[in-house]
Amino acid sequence: MPRPTSRPALVAAAVLALLPLSACGGGDGDITITVLAASSLTGTFTELGQQFEAEHPGVRVKFAFDSSATLAQQATQGAPADVLATADTTTMDSAGAAQATKPEVFATNVMVLATPAANPAHVSSFSDLDRSSVKFVMCVTTAPCGKVGQALLDQDHITGTPVSQEIDVKSVLAKLTEGEADAGLVYTTDAVAAGDQVKALRIPGSGKQVTSYPIVTLTQSKHPDLAQQFVDLVTGATGRRTLVKAGFGRP
């Protein structure tokens, strides 16, 4: 009679099925490494993943881009992944049980106030969020982008209420580019990536709420050497150039 499947195996299989994995370039490789990364890293990590594949024939990189809190939870539940990169150190700390190495901060980011390119609500400053006619969006406060956003609202005594709170910063940006909001709190890098689709305004005191991005290899990695090599690419000179070009600050 077949032996029953263990509960840990069922949990890992269920988590894998939920992962929003996307292949990064290349064809089918002999080995696949999976990287869980905060959604604000989508552009830079996709580029670095393509370079990693080019330098490692037969290796394929897959990414799961999502909210840092979601990814950290997946990592601690044993999701079959090799690397975790989050948008804050607190969330990374919550995944301590899944860390095979010491987390290393590789980049920083600050928030800006973004508007659609046409700026229909004529938003010109952060204080305009207190105008009842301005519909603004931000991340949920359980996400790093939401924690920073709320800290900036409190810091600058903004009492306006967002019309919606999104799961991650990419969703906030989508509300702006689709014309569903007048303004939104996003990272500098997301505004850069959106190009001429949005306008970015500096938030007073944003330098006091700097976001740090740590990266780590995971205990469940089946390819720890390759995982560490990907981490080395991100934290090394090549990764630094790619990140700075996208608007990230140095760690």
The percent range for helix content is 25-40%
Number of helices: 9
Task: Name the CATH homologous superfamily of the largest domain.
Answer: Periplasmic binding protein-like II
Strand content: 15-25%
Whole-number tally of structural domains: 2
Overall mean confidence score, pLDDT = 90
Strand order of the largest sheet: 1-3-2-4-11-5
In the CATH scheme, what's the topology name of the largest domain?
Answer: D-Maltodextrin-Binding Protein, domain 2
In short:
The protein is an alpha/beta fold.
How would you explain this protein's 3D organization?
With 251 residues, the protein is of the alpha/beta class. It folds into two domains: 136 residues, 3-Layer(aba) Sandwich (D-Maltodextrin-Binding Protein, domain 2); 98 residues, D-Maltodextrin-Binding Protein, domain 2 (3-Layer(aba) Sandwich), CATH 3.40.190.10. It contains nine helices and eleven strands. The strands form two sheets. It has a six-stranded mixed sheet. A five-stranded mixed sheet has the order 8-7-9-6-10. Strand 2, helix 2 and strand 3 form a beta-alpha-beta unit. Helix 8 packs across helix 9. It is elongated. The N terminus is likely disordered.
